[in-house]
Amino acid sequence: MQIVIIGSGNVAYHLAKAFKESGVEVSQIFGRNKTELSKISEELSIPFSTETIANADLYLISVSDSSIAEVSQFIKKENCLVAHTSGSVSREALAGNYRKSVFYPLQTFSKSKKLDYKKIPFFIDAENEEDAEILKNLALKISENVMFADDEKRKYIHLTAVFACNFVNHLFARAKEISDSQNIPFEYFLPLIDETTQKIHELEPKLAQTGPAVRGDNRILELHEQLIIDEEQQKIYKTLNESIKKMYS
Known about the structure:
By secondary structure, the chain is α/β, with parallel strands linked by helices. 48% of the residues lie in helices and 13% in strands. The protein contains 10 helices and 8 strands. It has helices at 10-22, 34-44, 68-72, 129-142, 151-181, 190-199, 205-208, 212-215, 218-227, 231-248; strands at 3-6, 28-30, 48-49, 58-61, 81-84, 99-105, 122-126, 146-148. Strands 3-2-1-4-5-6-7-8 form an 8-stranded mixed sheet. Helix 3 (68-72) links the parallel strand 4 (58-61) and strand 5. The longest helix is centred in the middle third of the chain and has 31 residues, at 151-181. It is elongated and about 65 Å long.
């Protein structure tokens, strides 16, 4: 099966790399950013183009959610299989006379961070069972965790991911602001962060909760609020503590 990846960002790079490591040939990577495409091409020995999309059986569109519909119009071949890699966009956003599908990897991607692709869950959706099986078998060459998920299910998968990943990382960034303000090396908090994330591999998150809010220690909560000068941090601190209190009341 001939595969073309459209895009040059984090997801496109890691998909190309995962296929390469699994022995799946990618015919071409296509996009607008010549600099990034050339870097991927040089590292993974995959041809690239910014002008002409190669003929393929499967096109994987790995671009921003807002660009999927526009980019999908570049594919003029009829009756081929086209999949985007978004968690929150319907497969119907693909605008063309071809078979529409979704090939969604549930992970946070950065080009500089090495990943174990076998552990990344892939969520598959397609217009018919035959195409769903094609994508499932392709995903199984990369990952051990593959599941079918329609548009509605993927919305909740993506929402859960935002809470579990994006919000948590934002709190890390806010925590670093506080430690930096007191000249405390943020690296000293990494063992705590590692233990927190590792613990939920063994305990349900609700059972793993610790801290002054779950204990009802209002003296500590009030002390912390007095220490926080930044208005946005103050708001976050109060909102999250209220949420914790309600969950355990």
